[in-house]
Amino acid sequence: MKKLLATALALTLALSLTACGGGSSETAGGNSEETKKEAVGGQTGSGEGNIITIWTSNELHNQMFEFGEKAYNEKHADNPVKLKIEVYPNTEMANKLLIALQSGVGAPDVADININYFSNFLKGDIQLVPMNDIVEKELADCVQSRFDLYKKDSNYYGLPTHVGATVVYYNMEIMENAGFTIEDVNAIETWDQYRDIGVEVFEKTGIPMTIYEVSNQRPFWPMIVQRGGDYLNTDGSVAMDSDSNIQVLEWMKDFWDTGAVVAAPGGSTSVEEFWTWMNQGGCASLTMPSWFMSRFTNYMPDLEGKIAIRPMPVFEKGQPRTVGIGGTGTAITTQCKNVELAKEVLYESKLTYEANVNIWECLQFDPVRTDVWTDERLTAPMEYFYNESFFKIMGEYVDGCPSPVNADFSVAAQDLINNTVMYSVFVDGSQTPAEALKAAAEELRAQQ
Amino acid sequence: MKMRRRIMSVMVFLLFLLVSLIMLFPIYYLIIGSLQDGKEIFRAGMKFFIHPREIKWSNYPNLFTYNDGIYTKWFSNSVFYAVAFTVCALVLSSLVGYGLGAYSFKGKNMIFVLVLAVMMIPLEILMLPLYKLIVKIKLINTAGGIIFPFMVAPVAIFFFRQFVSGISPEFMESARIDGCTEFGIFYRIVVPLMKPAFGAMTILLAMQNWNSFVWPLIVLRDSNKFTLTIGIASLINPYSANYDVMIAGSVVAILPILILFLFNQRFFIAGLTSGGVKG
Amino acid sequence: MNQNREIRSFRKVLYSKKAAPYLFCLPFIISFLIFFLYPTINTILMSFQKIEGFNNVTWIGLGNYKRLFNVHFYNALKSSSIYMVCMVSIMLIFPITIATFLNSKILKFKNFFRSAIFVPTLTSVIVAGIAFRLMFGETEAGLFNSIILKLGGEIIAWKTGYVTGMIMMVSLAAWRELGINMVYCLSALQSIPEELYEAADIDGANAVQKFVFVTIPQVQPIIIYILTLTILNGYRMFTEGYVYWNETNPGDIGLTIVRYIYQQAFQRNDFGMGSAIGVALLVIVLTVNMFQLNFFGLFKKEDAS
Predict the structure, then answer these.
(1) C86 found inside a domain
(2) pTM (two decimals)
C-alpha cells in the first residue's frame, strides 16, 4: 500500500517537476505554508498598505490600470501605490464578486463590472462606493450618458471605459462588386435607403447585406435606443413592447424576409465562427459598436483596407447617428479599505486626458472624453479602415449620443431579448415581432 | 467454423478500430489545433491536417513565458491540490468505508443512506451557504477551502465499503485474537488487502479534483493560486480570446492525469474488478 | 495518575469492537454535518426568503415557489429530462456491449482499445468543450459542417437548433463518460465465474444466449449503479451546456435546471429563487432515483445484507 501511494505521489510530483522545470515542488510547499498563515491571519491583500486589488475579466485592461498606477506614482514618489490585478473568466468574475459582496468578505478593492451585470450590483444595499467627486470634475468634457449607465439616485458607482459609439462597418470590396461607390455609401442617411441598397447588393452578388444576432441583441438594441426607446424606462418600468420598439423589430423582420439578412454564424458577433465567416467576406456590412474595430484588426486580417466606417443611418431625420453600446464599469467596493487612494488611481487610469489617449492606444476603445477625439494621436488615418480615422468620421456625432437605460431589471430584460425574442422571431419563426415583444414584456412585468 | 471465427474477429477488430479513432479524434483535433497559429484559426478556420512544415511548435514554449510563466504556476497548483486532495480523500474514505463494511452496529444503515444522499446532491445548490461557511472558518483562498468540503468522498466510501464487505471476516477475527487494536486491524490487515481498491480510487479521485471547476473558482481569489482548469477558462473570453495559449494549454492539462492512468491502469481495472462496485 | 487513566481509557476505545465503527465513521459524520447538512438547511431557509443584497433579507413564504412554475423552469426541466433519458439509453447499451467484446477472446489488442476508449474520461469538461466547440463550428471550416458539405448537404447552425444543441451536449457527455462506465462493466464481467459459461456451453447456448442469460443477470448490480449515477449526473448537468452557450442561451436550448439555478442566483442576483429551484431539483432527483432503486430492488438487497 505504502509503496503504491508513494509511487503515485512520486509520479505526480515528478511529472510536475519535469513539466515545470523544477520550480513546482517548491511552489507546492510554499503554498501550504501560505495557506497556514492565511488561515490564521484571516484576509490579506485587501487594501492593506498601498496595495489595491483589482479584478478584471480582460487581460488587456491591465494596461489601463498600470497606466494609472504609473501616473499616480509619478506624483506620489514618496508613497507609491502597488496594484494587484487578477484576471478571471468574464461571467464567473461577476458571480464571484456577487457572492463576495453578498457575504461581506472576499471582495477586491476595485472591480471591472461588465455592463450586462452592473444592475445586479445596484440592487438593495449597494455594496459599491459613489465616486461623484472624481466624476464631476471631468464630466463636462465627457459623454454624459456613459456615466448615467452606472448612476443610481444621483450617485455615480462606475467609471465607463469607452463610448462604444455604434457605427456601420461596410465591406467596400463587396459594395463595389455590387456597383456601389463610397459616395453611394456616404449618401445613406436612412435605414430605408440602407435596406434598398442591401437588397440590391444581395441580388447582384448573392452576398447578404448584414447579419442579425439571434443569441444576442444587435442591431435591435442600438436601433431602439437611437429612437429614444429601450427595454425599460428610466423609472424601471417595462417599455419592451412600446410601439416604437415593435416598429423597429417589424422593420427588421421585413428586411430579413427579403433574404438579404442572415443570422450571424454562431448566433452572435463575439464567437470565432462569426469572425472566420466575416473575414471570408460573409456579408457586406455590420452594425456594431466602435470596440468591434479591434476584433477586425485582430481576427479578420484579410479585410484590411476594405472596411469603411460610417455613422448609423436613422429612421427619421434628426435622430442621433450613433448610440453608445456595451461597456465595463469600474467600481470601488465597500470592502475597500483605502477608498481615496483607489479613487485617485482610477482617476489617473480612466478620467484624465492622457488616460483617455492611453485607452485608445492600448485598447483601441473610443474614449469617453470627447476633447481627446480631436487629438492628433487619435485622428491619424488607419490603414485597416479604408485609410480613414474613426474619430474624424464620428467626431461630430458623438457629443450627447444616447446610451441605454440601466435599471433593476436590465439584466433580465436583455436575457429575454437574447434568449427568447430574437430566437422566436428569426430562428423558429414561432412569434411575430409584436407577439414576441409583448410576451417578453409580460414576463418582465410578472417579475417586478 | 474456424474461418467464420476469423472473419468475425477481423470485423470486430475493424469496428473497434473505428470506435477508438472516433474516441481519440477530439484529442487529435486539440493537438493539431495547438500546432497552428491562433490568429490563423480565426482567419480561415481550423485545419484537420497540417503539413509538417506548417507546424508551429512555439505555442508550447510560449506556455511557459506567457504572462510571466503563470501557466506553470497554475500547473503546479493543480498538481499540489490534486495530490493533497487524493491523499486525504483516500485515507478518510477508506476509514469510513471500512467502518461501514466490516462492522454491524446501530445506525449503520442510516449512515449508509446518508452517504448515498450526499452522492445525489448537486453542489450548485449549496454553493452560497458553503461559501459563507468557508469564509467564516477562514479557509477562503486556501487549498484547504478547495479540499476540505469534499475530502470525505461519498463515491469512494461507497466503493471501499463494497470492497471491505467482500473480505472474509476471519482475517480480522484472527488478528483480534492476536491482540491487534481495531485500528491495527485496519492498518495491518485490511489496507494491504485493499491495495487494488486504492489504485482504482487514486485515479478516480485525482481525476475528480484535477477537473473540478466551479468550486475552486469560487474559493480562490488569487490568480497565482488558480488551477489549470480555471486558468484555461479565463482565456475563453469574448473580448480577448487567446487561442495559442488556450489550446496548447488544454493539451498539456490532459497529460498528468493521462500518465497517472497509464501507469496505474493495471491496478485500476484490477481494483474495480476485485470486489468493487457490485451494488 | 490522571494521565494514565486517560491512556487506559483511550486504549480501551482502540480495542473496543463496539466503539470502533463509530470512530471509523466519524470523518464522514463530521463532514456531513458541517459541509452538507448545515448548507442544505441554509438553502432550504433561503428558498423562503427574498434576498436583496447583503443583510437585506425578508421572509416571503412560498413566494419563490410560486414564481418557480414558469415557462423557463419547464423548459429547463424538459431539457434536463431529455438529456438524462438520452444519456441513460446510451450508457445502458454501449458500455456493456463494448466491455463484452473487450472481455472476449475474439478481440485482439484489447489493452490498446481499452485505453483508447477510456482516455476521454480523463479530460475535463472545459478542455473537452474547447475541442467540441471547434468541431461543431458553424462555418464551412467546422469539422462536422465540412463533412456534411462534402456529402452534399448544407451547413448547419448547430448552436441555434434545439435538436442539434441536444446532440452537441449529449455527444460531449457521452464521449467523456463512456470510458468510465465501460470500465465498470468490464470489472463486473471479469468477476463472473468461468463455470457459469462452461455450464451454458454444456447446455448448448450460443453467444447471444450466453450474453442474455448469463452475462446480463450477473452484471445487473453494476448496471443499476450506472443507471443511478447517470440519472443523477443527467439532472446535475451544467458544464456541458455552459461550454457551448456561456453568455446567452437562445431559445433556452442549453438551459438545464442547474443552469437555471446559476442564472437566477448569480446572473440575476436572486439567491432566494435560486435556492427554491435547488430544492425542487433535490426533490426531483431523489424521487426519480428512489423510484428507480425501488424498482430494481437495490434497497431490499441492502436490508438483507
Answers:
(1) yes
(2) 0.85
